């Protein structure tokens, strides 16, 4: 995976530059304290270590700045003749070649490692975010399926315990009226206890309805039919829309 922001791992602002100046000052102080013991030996080692630490914590720009300032301080204070800039000899040339070369190699390696680390952290955060999104969607799907199952179980349960229900049908709230009317035969999900008592033609008319309202239907009364009112009520749930048709009076 290509991460464009992998090179932007270093902190921004004025504080990193303050820490850079503090690190240069510490390196200079340590080298001054060791100068009576070391003399002209390894004049840039303390500054190399400071530049490496600055690279690890604050990035390449501050590390290169620390390297350049360290080179000037080391050449001026710790390369003989001391505290003279007019004389350029073999010691100055050795410091000018060896110190920047080694320091640049070290800070480039650290920069590469820090970018790889930051890239891995970004990829890990993206993967964690996607994993959480997948978990959330999976949980929502499971809850929706469970709610739909419970709703349909309730719709199947109601007709058995309410003797005035004729028919319960469901339809897709997102579908148009023509689409609902075209598949009305498939929308009836439950037959009530009064379903068999209603005239077949009236059952077809109820099954084709897509809006709530009152209808006059014929229902068996002995060996004949009598006309009564059938009320259609719409119920909207998270599992879908339902029309419940029930007679307003029991036989």
UniProtKB/TrEMBL annotation:
InterPro entries, A to Z: KdpD_sf, KdpD_TM
GO cellular component: membrane
GO MF annotations, alphabetized: ATP binding; kinase activity
Domain called Sensor protein KdpD transmembrane: residue spans: 17-120
Membrane topology category: Multi-pass membrane protein
Places the protein is found: Membrane
Name of the protein this chain belongs to: DUF4118 domain-containing protein
Organism in which the protein naturally occurs: Paraburkholderia ginsengisoli
């Amino acid at each position: 995976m290509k991460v464009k922001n992998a090179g932007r791992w270093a902190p921004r602002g004025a504080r990193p530059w303050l820490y850079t100046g503090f690190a240069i000052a510490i390196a200079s102080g340590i080298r001054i304290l060791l100068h009576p013991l070391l003399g002209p030996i390894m004049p840039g080692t303390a500054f190399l270590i400071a530049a490496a630490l600055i690279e690890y914590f604050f990035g390449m720009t501050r590390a290169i700045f620390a390297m350049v300032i360290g080179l000037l301080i080391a050449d001026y204070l710790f390369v003989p003749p001391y505290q003279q800039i007019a004389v350029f000899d073999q010691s100055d040339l050795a410091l000018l070649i060896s110190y920047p070369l080694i320091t640049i190699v070290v800070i480039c390696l650290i920069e590469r490692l820090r970018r790889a680390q930051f890239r891995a952290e970004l990829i890990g955060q993206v993967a964690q975010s996607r994993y959480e999104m997948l978990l959330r969607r999976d949980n929502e799907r499971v809850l929706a399926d469970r709610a739909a199952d419970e709703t349909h179980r309730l719709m199947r349960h109601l007709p058995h315990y309410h003797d005035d229900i004729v028919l319960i049908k469901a339809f897709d709230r997102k579908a148009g009226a023509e689409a609902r009317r075209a598949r009305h035969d498939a929308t009836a999900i439950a037959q009530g206890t009064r379903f068999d008592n209603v005239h077949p033609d009236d059952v077809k008319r109820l099954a084709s309805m897509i809006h709530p309202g009152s209808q006059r239907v014929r229902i068996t009364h002995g060996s004949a039919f009598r006309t009564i009112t059938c009320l259609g009520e719409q119920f909207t749930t998270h599992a879908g829309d339902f029309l419940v048709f029930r007679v307003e009076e029991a036989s």
